[in-house]
Structure to design on (522 residues):
């Protein structure tokens, strides 16, 4: 049986497709405008150095154990896998180089970014969302404090500064993990291994990783703050904001990683 | 709603809708210096929305506000700053900052806006704690360690920390037992008198009214349907006011037995 109004049905179908697309574009526009607003306010007074320091400790220092542990195991696994692959071409000597290169350029920043995203994006979103639900944000406003200045900018600055430091530490710990496995299991000489690593790494390898780390820090803080401030009322809203913050931060880290890798390639 | 004095705050024809639901349908109200006015109304009558419009936490669809006779748009940063510099707000659930100790909550504006050194700010906060009847040992506690009544007291101390001209109280006794409610009402009354503060309270608590307000405005279906001094509230012949005072449902109401 033919539909009575085929044009109407087509339009209805298009509307069904168009509505979510429009909503997504609106959400994207809102997020971009929020990000630009935050960027602008980063350079405008008032500045809150003490609050930046508090967030830096929260984001950086308390993430160190999990970041370090992950980097250590990643370094060990890289050495083992690298050895398995390179042994097929009798190129085992490349293990230290591949461990160092992969850690500094890719795994260090990406793994650290994802771990901090899971740990901090959710925490930032949950904290700001509960502040919104319990009218603490309204209280801030009526006390003449701009929430963007007080809640968002210090977290963004702290994350942008702290992530490269975390990544540097994670690079060192990862290389130590690779060295440990290479020396005790793959029979490398420790001095030769470290010499190979040191000689092979170029400044750009480290710099590209640190630039990525800063970008990931920015994304982690922005996504957490954005989802927290845009959260709907109620406990369910807080839960949803937390989940969305982690998902958005993780996806944007992977996307930004691709873009930045293309730039540094 | 007239007086020989100029109103400190006046609202003219304020409207607010949420989609098809017209919450406020033309609110006209004046608040005079050192007056204590309570806006009375049932749950969902738009009392808190009205307060949010005044404080610029939500934009009005239509209407205007004036502060000391000068028109202002509370959602505009420049105008809102003028209002916030002159007002203190006691929120329904106190809205204390969880991450800060009690003294810092109270002295927040003094530190952030008035750039008072921390030790001076703490001294001022401790003296405010005493004013609201709390032990000074509470100063270093965090809000999570306080009871509902203590939180309200701290919220009141925070609202009064900068000696505001106007104190806004959103349901100041919500969630408190009758004794604590009475204590908070007494505190608001005595502190407002002491500091010569104008008070605008939002409440549905009839028992609180004699202490909270010298004048009452009754909000019903988005409009102010009755306004007079507190003494005349119980003598009012307005059926809605009488119904609210007596706590009875309309006979036509589907929920009535």
């Amino acid at each position: 049986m033919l539909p009575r109004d085929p044009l109407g049905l087509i339009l209805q179908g298009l509307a069904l497709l168009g509505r979510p697309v429009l909503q997504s574009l609106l959400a994207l526009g809102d997020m971009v405008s929020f990000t630009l607003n935050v960027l602008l306010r980063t350079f405008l007074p008032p500045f809150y150095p003490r609050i930046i320091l508090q967030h830096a400790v929260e984001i950086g220092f308390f993430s160190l154990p999990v970041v370090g542990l992950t980097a250590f195991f990643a370094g060990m696994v890289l050495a083992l896998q690298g050895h398995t692959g390179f042994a097929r071409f009798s190129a085992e000597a490349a293990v230290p180089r591949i461990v160092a290169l992969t850690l500094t350029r890719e795994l260090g920043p990406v793994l650290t970014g994802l771990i901090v995203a899971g740990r901090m994006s959710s925490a930032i979103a949950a904290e700001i969302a509960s502040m919104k639900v319990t009218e603490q944000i309204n209280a801030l406003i009526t006390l003449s404090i701009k929430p963007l200045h007080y809640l968002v900018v210090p977290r963004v600055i702290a994350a942008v500064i702290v992530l490269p430091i975390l990544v540097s530490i994670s690079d060192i710990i990862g290389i130590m993990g690779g060295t440990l496995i290479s020396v005790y299991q793959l029979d490398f000489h420790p001095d030769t291994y470290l010499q190979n690593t040191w000689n092979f790494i170029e400044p750009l390898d480290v710099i590209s990783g640190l630039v990525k780390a800063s970008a990931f820090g920015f994304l982690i803080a922005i996504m957490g703050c954005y989802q927290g401030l845009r959260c709907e009322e109620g406990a369910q809203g807080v839960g949803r904001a937390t989940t969305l913050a982690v998902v958005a931060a993780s996806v944007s880290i992977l996307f930004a990683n691709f873009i930045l890798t293309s730039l540094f390639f | 709603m007239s007086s020989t004095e100029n109103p400190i705050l006046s609202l003219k024809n304020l409207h607010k809708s949420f989609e098809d639901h017209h919450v406020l349908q033309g609110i006209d109200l004046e608040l005079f210096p050192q007056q204590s006015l309570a806006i009375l109304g049932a749950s969902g009558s738009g009392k808190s929305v009205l307060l949010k419009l005044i404080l610029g936490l939500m934009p009005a669809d239509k209407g205007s506000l004036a502060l000391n006779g000068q028109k202002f748009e509370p959602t505009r940063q420049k105008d809102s700053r003028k209002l916030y510099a002159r007002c203190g707000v006691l929120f329904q659930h106190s809205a204390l900052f969880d991450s800060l100790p009690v003294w810092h909550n109270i002295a927040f504006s003094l530190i952030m806006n008035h750039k008072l050194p921390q030790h001076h700010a703490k001294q001022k906060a401790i003296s405010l704690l005493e004013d609201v009847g709390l032990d000074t040992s509470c100063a270093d506690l965090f809000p999570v360690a306080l009871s509902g009544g203590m939180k309200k007291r701290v919220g009141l101390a925070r609202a009064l920390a900068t000696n505001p001209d106007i104190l806004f109280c959103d349901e100041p006794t919500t969630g408190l037992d009758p004794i604590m409610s009475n204590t908070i009402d007494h505190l608001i009354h005595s502190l407002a008198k002491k500091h010569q503060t104008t008070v605008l309270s939002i409440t549905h608590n009839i028992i609180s009214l004699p202490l909270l307000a010298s004048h009452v405005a009754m909000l019903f279906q988005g409009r102010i349907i009755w306004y007079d001094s507190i003494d005349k509230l119980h003598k009012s012949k307005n059926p809605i006011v009488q119904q609210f005072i007596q706590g009875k449902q309309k006979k036509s109401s589907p929920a009535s037995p």
In short: Chain A has one domain: 51-264. The CA atoms of residues 39 and 153 of chain A lie 8 Å apart.
